[in-house]
Amino acid sequence: MTFKNIICPVCGASCDDIQVEIAGGGIRVKNACRMGNAKFQEISSPHRIREPMIRDGGRMRAASFDEAVDRAASILVEAKRPLIFMGCETSSEAMEVGLHLGEHLGAVVDSNSTVCHGPTAMGIQEAGRVGATAGQAKSRADLAVYWGSNPLESMPRHMSRYAVFPRGHWTRRGRFDRTVITVDPRRTITAENSDLHIQLKPNTDYELISALLTLLHGKRPHDSVEEITGISISRMEEMLEMMKSSNFGVIYVGLGIASSYGKHRNAEAAFNLVKELNATTKFVIGALRGHCNVAGFNQIASYLYGYPFGLDFSRGYPRYNPGEFTAVDLLREKDVDAALIVSADLVSHFPADCAEYLAEIPVACIEIAPTPTTMISDVIIPGVIDAMECDGTFYRLDDVPIYFRPFTTSPFSFTESNEDTMRRIFDRTRDSLKSSNLAEE
Amino acid sequence: MIRSANMIIKNGYVFDPLNGLDGEVMDLFIRDGRVVGDLRAREMRDAKVIDASGKTVMAGGVDSHAHVAGAKVNAGRLMRPEDHYRSVRERTRLTHSGSGYTTPSVYKQGYDYVAMGYTTVFEGAMPPLEARHTHEEMRATPILDMGAYLVLGNNWFIMRYLKEGDIEKAAAYAAWMLRTHKGYGIKCVNPAGVENWGWAKNVAGLDEPNIHFEVTPREVIRGLAEVNEMLGLPMSLHLHANNLGHPGNWETARDSLMIPSGLAPADRSIVDWPETKLDCRRRQTVYLAHAQFNAYGGTSWRDFSSGVPELARYINQTEDVVIDSGSVPFGPATTMTGDGPAQHDLYVITGQKWSNTDVEMECGSGVLPFLFLKTSPVHSVQWAIGLEVLLLIDDPWKTIMTTDHPNGGVFTRYPDLIAWLMSKRARDETARECNKWAYDRSSLGGVDREISLYEVAVITRANPARTIGIAHRKGHLGPGADGDVTIYDLDPTGLNSNDPSAIRTAFGRPEYTVKDGRIVARRGEIVAVPEGRRFYTTPYVDEDHELEMMADVKEWFKYYTVGFANYPVPERYMKNPTPIAVNRPLEAVVRR
Ligand code: SF4
């Protein structure tokens, strides 16, 4: 069987042209990059978690789905302030249930933004963001600036599908109609393939952006900026001239901006630069999102409750204060006492003290394959792979929602999707909250 | 499924303009969620009875133009935490929590509309590529019946067909797009100009061809208005005119409104048309959005003034036009439109934080926080203009009251607008508090008109429903209408226009909001949370003709970044999808 127009559930590019051929127990994938291909192969991986497990007297044992759901629910209900972490490799529909569950429990609900493009979102809250859907760049852009991002490694098809190589309406010659600038302290492979590499010193993005803004306003930045950033003013002028003389320019920011000194202030400065450039020529800016549905959580949480990540429901209404209600800070301060983690490996990706604390508190997780996080969990429920085994929605890097249809079904008899599993947990918490309320009365 | 019930609303003063009722005391009957002439004895016994004696009864409010769902609304929410900290709603046993004043989250927004007596709300602009997002948000919105207008005024296919003069193909394309994205009607935003914004430019006049496509705003407006009537859509072309937000733009607005003249309105929805006293089908061929932003006089912000008297003069002598007001009640707002270049202009003036999203091959949008101040000369005139457009146009059937939420202000300020419209004293009081330009640079100070409750019913339910072609079931209380009823604690016999605060209170917190025959809100509190319907149109066009058009679409689809197969909106993004079939095969568009 061959399936066409399948969506890849790996990075924010949400490529929707994947072809999957299933024959003889194997799976052949066309059009995906190597990262995507690897994920598709996982569907038949021997590492896949196939049955629910719960911790019993310190040891993990197999359990029925109902038993696992029960235990997950009671962990949440018994906690004073649980953390629900909706990883970005699952559907918006599952995230929606996670948010409802968090509201119901008075929990904190967070997602990967908190450790990746959260500062970018905060930059938007300071400055706004002038952007466009990916097709605008495909048809019009003659200049691409990769700033603190390295798409050839993190989003391998970004250049070929959207930004540099595609032949769009006004960019018929693809790469030949475009100039590429990379701003990165490292000589990455993206930098090697660019027309101009601005190799600034690490953690000086803010200074460089500010200097460009000063030049754009017709003034000369203080000479010290050359020493600070390692870039000569004449080089900056050259870069700015390239930007100003383009017909349609795009900046793609990566974690190099969100995670270096200055964090959301870097993003804010970059957004302001782009806003100002629009008086001269067309310029837009967007984030390269490493995981498929990071953008989704920001969108869903914003329209359901009003904030993009780190939502605290302990007062019965949503509150937002990054640094206070965000997952890393809550774990570090030991401000939560249980966690439900969906499709994310917090133990590997969070700071060590957070990971240690996670090992101390009751944790339930929904996951596809064993990770350090599943190892510290008290309940493990097998995850269903979105876009392959169930349908749903991802928000692409440019916030365009993509509907995905699966080419096979959930391998489990007990659940159809992570959304389904989340609903079962939610229903179970509702039941037990009801009975405990009754007991109080 | 929508659960519904039997109900009797007794002895209220009923204001139902489409049925010619101007405060008659009478009983209303609802069976299975629909208004009927009477109930059988057995049904009477188990019907819910509401005593409305001494109260004002109207059909549920209909907002025909607000920004309540979709990518740009959410861009507003995302960029404005400061708007959310200040305004929160706690969860209850029945309702979800939420936050946001000018850009409320969807639950809060739905409850706030219902608590104010509105039961139907249409989203003013849905970009096709992001239609799934709009539908997701509508799917999450409680209680309200909704729909969304599809943005087509800078669509590559439409511009190409109009340039080639192939109006039939343009119609076939529009029909396919409405079906594909579950859109309700055709919206046209800054025609030809938003495409130029793809190069950071705009168009300067109605006859300036845009870059590359070389179509003019005039050609797009005329073309889409023709397409609209050719398809027989329930709503006329919905126009966001060029040159928005600039001093002196009233002339552009008037000239734009003249473009469709001569066309005959042709609503060919296949629905059960009820027997209302007035014809409940639309008369207009163009529906102008948020007139306030397009009714400016003067030549700069220094000699800024109202252009309403001139604009109203034209509208008063034509039957082709309906406007919604886009009024400004002062206070916080978030401007958001599909008009990218207009938002850039506002950024240049204000230096505010500004978000923009261009949508490939289709349209664009911009979002910018705003605060309308009584101390500001220009804002004060904008306040006056927003009321003038409703008071200087003589026939209320040509006007609809909105704030273009959240552009002019928040929808929860509608009661303030009603008070200003019903009470000269209320206007004078406000004029004294704000900058003197309000009366100096407009004609509002000399306007004595105070609108009646009957006229309030026209501009807040009957006419919005009729204008968008949903009056077969909304905006009136005759047999066959949906059982959506609002009961205000306002005795019309004791109405005193010199007491605006009583008017504000009554309209801000109705006694009851009834949806499909069930009480959903009581004195501002939500008491039931049924799911609403999602309306969209499915226009039929000749099949051969559609095939020819599809060949073009497929050929040009390569410029998109999603595949053709992944472009449509599946029904799973909707709750209670309610398609309206349009154009019987026999009347379908055939090549001339
Ligand atoms: S670029 Fe990203 S979405 Fe596309 S195939 Fe590779 S991993 Fe998948």
Automatic annotation (TrEMBL), chain A:
Q: What class of enzyme is it?
A: oxidoreductase
Question: Which residues does UniProt call coiled coil?
Answer: none
Could you tell me which InterPro entries the record lists for this protein? Formylmethanofuran_DH_bsu, Mopterin_OxRdtase, Prok_molybdopt-oxidoreductase
Q: Name one Pfam family in it.
A: Molybdopterin
Name its species.
Answer: Candidatus Methanocrinis natronophilus
This entry's Enzyme Commission designation comes to 1.2.7.12
Q: Which UniProt keywords apply?
A: Oxidoreductase
| One Gene Ontology MF term | formylmethanofuran dehydrogenase activity
- Indicate what this protein is called per its UniProt record: Formylmethanofuran dehydrogenase subunit B
Record-linked CDD domains: MopB_FmdB-FwdB (cd02761)
TrEMBL record, chain B:
Gene Ontology molecular-function annotations: formylmethanofuran dehydrogenase activity
Q: Does the keyword Secreted apply?
A: no
Its keywords, alphabetically, are: Oxidoreductase
| Short name of one Pfam family | Amidohydro_3
Residues of the Amidohydrolase domain = 48-521
Query: What EC number(s) does the entry state?
Result: 1.2.7.12
Family matches, as Gene3D superfamilies: Metal-dependent hydrolases, Urease, subunit C, domain 1
Q: What sort of enzyme, by top EC class, is this?
A: oxidoreductase
Mind telling me which NCBIfam families this protein's record contains? Answer: one_C_dehyd_A
Name this polypeptide is given: Formylmethanofuran dehydrogenase subunit A
Q: What is the scientific name of the source organism?
A: Candidatus Methanocrinis natronophilus
